[in-house]
């Protein structure tokens, strides 16, 4: 295949054919890149189809302004002209698809000379021109559509899930992540040619704008997302304003590029995008070193493959490296690795923050150390249970529990051991009750257990024995050989006309009746 660049961009096919022998044709390399601003690239090749299969030529790049294929019909001598590219809707292309594709002359025409004229501005033209047999082309397209469909399908699901999580939990990080996925996906749809093929086939102007959004809008969205999760304002207000200013500069550069569409404006977008990638890496490294938010390390790992792989198309845009698989699909590979990791990191981050909020809210009705209900919560529950028990004429049970050796633990092992003993006691009580019963901490060393009915003396005594036995079991949380000695008072309620607070106080006060070294650890109060 030979190539020649028409510097004026005005030559017609008849002129080129007539002057072909005198034009400075050069052999075209597979990785060759040409700057065509205001010019036209002409390609020339000969082909002879020797079988009944149909053959096609494909220009393997999306976003090309205009591609024309010419050849003469051997029977009539007239030019056969096919045209594709962003200058016209994809729906009117000779072979609609992601890339400009043209059908070659049938086998009966013998050896045919083909001429291809290409116009492309903004970026250098470096797309490969390849001949395909029909079945090979169809197989290639099916494979590409399957892989890209799976990629964009997963992206759409993650965007919807992030949006739902952001709205449900009022989490700005999830909303920013959803916006980031949408912007990246829309840009990739345009860059891959899928948008023009399937989503906006009749809107070439919109396709031009969508193509121009790369890489500025995705980089700006990624930088804004990282700003939200790293919160650089904690370190420096100036740094935060600098990141905000960089995002604004990228958006302004993209808008300027959309209006002027010159190589200078495109290079401005690329420069700002490169600076944004550097700022993104700096914020992630700072978040990693700072260590205040453990989830930032997982988010940094999520961005790592994309940042590394994004360097390839960025370097290609500046003509620093030749066209390759990585320059075309590196961003796809990077985001495919990135998005699940980032979504998982945000979920972990959100769960931890919600747990902290739930624990803070629970302090209004639970004991901060043990996590059990506090006295006020138990009294409220007890009032309701007493009314129901009187109406249904059934008996409930209320147990008072004291750690009798808590003072000795404090004297021998200190305050830390006391706190551990209280937490272990609460754990024992939780295991000894069922889902409809309630355990509460009602004093420094005292607990109470409300057992919903119907209850009787033997069953409640059996449960009290379980509590006493649980305290005597050794646990790794306490110093070696240390066990908990529980004193337990047991009462069937309602008792006389006592209300909830008075009933609880009666049961707890009865714990003072135990002697210091009492061998009998369970005291029934009214049965």
Description:
There is one protein chain. This protein is an alpha+beta fold and 527 residues long. It is built from 15 helices and 14 strands. It is elongated. It starts with a strand and ends with a strand.
Defining key terms:
527 residues; alpha+beta; six-stranded antiparallel beta sheet; 14 strands
Summarize the structure.
This protein has about 525 residues and is α+β, with helices and mostly antiparallel strands. The chain has 15 helices and 14 strands. It starts with a strand and ends with a strand.
Question: Which helices and strands occur, and which strands form pairs?
Answer:
Elements: E1 2-6, H1 13-18, E2 26-27, E3 40-48, E4 55-59, E5 66-72, E6 79-84, E7 101-103, E8 111-119, E9 129-133, H2 134-169, H3 172-192, H4 194-199, H5 204-212, H6 216-230, H7 237-260, H8 263-290, H9 295-317, H10 325-362, H11 375-392, E10 396-403, H12 406-413, H13 415-432, E11 438-441, E12 446-451, H14 457-471, E13 486-493, H15 500-509, E14 522-524
Parallel strand pairs: 13-14
Antiparallel strand pairs: 1-2, 1-3, 3-8, 4-7, 4-9, 5-6, 5-8, 10-12, 10-13, 11-12
Q: Tell me the fraction of residues in β-strands, as a range.
A: 15-25%
Secondary-structure element sequence? EHEEEEEEEEHHHHHHHHHHEHHEEHEHE
Query: How far apart are the termini?
Result: 105 Å
SS-derived structural category: alpha+beta
Whole-angstrom Rg: 38 Å
Helix tally? 15
């Amino acid at each position: 295949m030979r190539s020649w660049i028409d510097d004026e961009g005005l030559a017609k096919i008849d002129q080129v054919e007539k002057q072909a022998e005198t034009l400075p044709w050069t052999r075209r390399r597979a990785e060759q890149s040409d700057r065509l601003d205001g010019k036209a690239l002409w390609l020339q090749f000969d082909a002879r189809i020797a079988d009944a299969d149909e053959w096609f030529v494909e220009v393997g790049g999306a976003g090309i302004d205009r591609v024309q294929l010419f050849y003469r019909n051997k029977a009539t001598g007239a030019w056969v002209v096919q045209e594709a590219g962003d200058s016209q809707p994809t729906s009117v292309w000779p072979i609609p698809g992601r890339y400009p594709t043209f059908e070659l002359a049938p086998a009966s025409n013998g050896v045919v000379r083909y001429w291809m004229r290409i116009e492309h501005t903004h970026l250098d033209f470096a797309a490969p021109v390849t001949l395909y047999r029909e079945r090979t082309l169809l197989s290639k397209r099916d494979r590409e559509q399957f892989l890209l469909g799976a990629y964009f399908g997963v992206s759409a699901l993650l965007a919807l899930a992030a949006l739902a999580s952001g709205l449900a939990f009022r989490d700005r990080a999830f909303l920013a992540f959803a916006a980031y996925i949408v912007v990246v996906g829309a840009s990739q749809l345009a860059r891959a040619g899928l948008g023009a093929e399937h989503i906006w086939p009749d809107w070439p102007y919109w396709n031009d704008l969508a193509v121009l959004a790369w890489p500025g809008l995705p980089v700006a969205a990624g930088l804004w997302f990282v700003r939200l999760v790293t919160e650089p304002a904690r370190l420096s207000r100036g740094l935060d304003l600098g990141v905000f200013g960089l995002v604004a500069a990228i958006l302004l550069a993209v808008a300027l590029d959309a209006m002027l569409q010159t190589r200078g404006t495109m290079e401005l977008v690329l420069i700002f995008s490169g600076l944004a990638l550097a700022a993104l890496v700096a914020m992630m490294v700072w978040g990693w070193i700072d260590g205040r938010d453990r989830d930032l390390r997982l988010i940094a790992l999520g961005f790592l493959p994309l940042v590394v792989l994004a360097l390839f198309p960025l370097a290609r845009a500046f003509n620093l490296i030749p066209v390759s698989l990585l320059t075309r699909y590196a961003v796809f590979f990077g985001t495919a690795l990135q998005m699940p990791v980032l979504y998982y990191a945000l979920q972990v981050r959100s769960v931890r923050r919600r747990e902290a909020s739930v624990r803070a809210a629970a302090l209004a009705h639970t004991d901060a150390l043990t996590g059990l209900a506090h006295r006020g919560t138990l009294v409220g529950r007890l009032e309701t249970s007493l009314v129901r028990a009187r109406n249904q004429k059934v008996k409930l049970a209320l147990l008072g529990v004291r750690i009798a050796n808590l003072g000795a633990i404090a004297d021998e092992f200190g305050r830390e051991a006391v706190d551990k003993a209280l937490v272990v006691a609460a754990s024992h009580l939780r295991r000894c009750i069922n889902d409809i019963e309630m355990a509460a901490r009602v004093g420094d060393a005292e607990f109470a257990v409300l057992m919903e009915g119907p209850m009787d003396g033997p069953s409640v005594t059996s449960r009290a024995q379980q509590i006493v036995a649980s305290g005597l079991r050794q646990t790794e949380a306490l110093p070696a050989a240390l066990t908990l000695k529980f004193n337990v008072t047991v009462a069937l309620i309602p008792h006389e006309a006592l209300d909830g607070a008075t009933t609880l106080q009666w049961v707890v006060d009865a714990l003072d009746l135990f002697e210091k070294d009492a061998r009998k650890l369970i005291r029934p109060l009214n049965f």
